[in-house]
Design brief:
Number of helices: 13
Largest sheet: none
CATH superfamily of the largest domain: MazG-like
CATH architecture of the largest domain: Orthogonal Bundle
CATH class of the largest domain: Mainly Alpha
Helix content: over 70%
Order of helices and strands: HHHHHHHHHHHHH
Low-confidence stretches: none
Number of domains: 3
Distance between the termini: 60 Å
CATH topology of the largest domain: Helix Hairpins
């Protein structure tokens, strides 16, 4: 398989497409050859989050590497379809180019815009028209169920807002959050479905986050990081004082926890 392969100092997208074909072809890589969309779909998710990790770390070298890994996943999926004679990577590029041209009439047409909000409004209107969607539930149903739950909830709520179903300000969202908290308490006490009420509470919390322009996914990630760091400090404090956490009572651990918080 390598007799006619040209090793280079630098490679480009054409080389990546050729390498993927070689990996999938007879005599190539046994693992790559048997993969399907279904078998590698989780890899696509993992690589996407690794790109986000590199962005969050502001690590340009890591970002370069992870963007390459993500691109490889796109090429992989396109090659699987190319082998079936359905479409190839060029078709993928063609489709996204046409979409970008269509949804930027202020750049590639005569439409005039005065702000970022104008751009986003045009984008949504063109998207709905191209997908044959009407205002209402149809745009909500277009939000992938596979998205992280908090992200999906926020996107669905944005669609509801565009349909005119929203509070005037955060006070309505906060009142609903309090109401859902009370309903969860009732469910825990045996009067209601705990899972449903917990879901309603989380959905309401996302609504509050939307009104205060705070991304719910990022907020929860930051709080989880904070919890881990505080618990790490709690362990260190317990070790310093020869306290066995496994045999300590919750009240004893709460005292250490409060001390850690006070020291921040």
């Amino acid at each position: 398989m390598t007799e006619d392969f040209e090793f280079k100092k630098n490679y480009d997208i054409a080389d990546l497409l050729d390498i993927m074909k070689r990996l999938r072809a007879p005599g190539g890589c046994p693992w790559d050859a048997v993969q399907t969309h279904e078998s590698i779909k989780k890899n696509l998710i993992e690589e996407t989050y690794e790109v986000i990790e590199a962005i969050n770390k502001k690590d340009r070298d890591l970002l370069l590497e992870e963007l390459g890994d993500l691109l490889m996943q796109v090429v992989f999926h396109a090659e699987i379809e190319n082998e079936k004679g359905e479409f190839d990577f060029s078709d993928v590029c063609d489709g996204v180019c046409k979409k970008l041209i269509e949804r930027h009439p202020h750049v590639f047409g005569e439409t005039e815009v005065n702000s970022v909000d104008d751009v986003l409004t045009n984008w949504d209107n063109i998207k709905r028209k191209s997908k044959g969607q009407k205002k209402g539930s149809e745009p909500m149903l277009s939000v992938p169920r596979e998205l992280p739950a908090l992200m999906r909830a926020s996107k669905v709520q944005q669609k509801a807002k565009k349909a005119g179903f929203d509070w005037d300000d955060v006070s309505g969202a906060l009142s609903k959050l309090s109401e859902e908290t009370d309903e969860l308490k009732e469910a825990i006490n045996g009067n209601g479905d705990v899972k449903n009420e917990l879901g309603d509470l989380l959905f309401s919390a996302v609504n509050v986050s939307r009104f205060i322009d705070c991304d719910a996914e990022e907020a929860l990630t930051a709080s989880t990081d904070k919890f881990i760091e505080r618990f790490r400090k709690l362990e260190a404090l317990a070790k310093e004082r020869n306290i066995d956490l496994e045999t300590s009572s919750l009240s004893e651990m709460d005292k250490l926890w409060d001390e850690v918080k006070m020291g921040e």
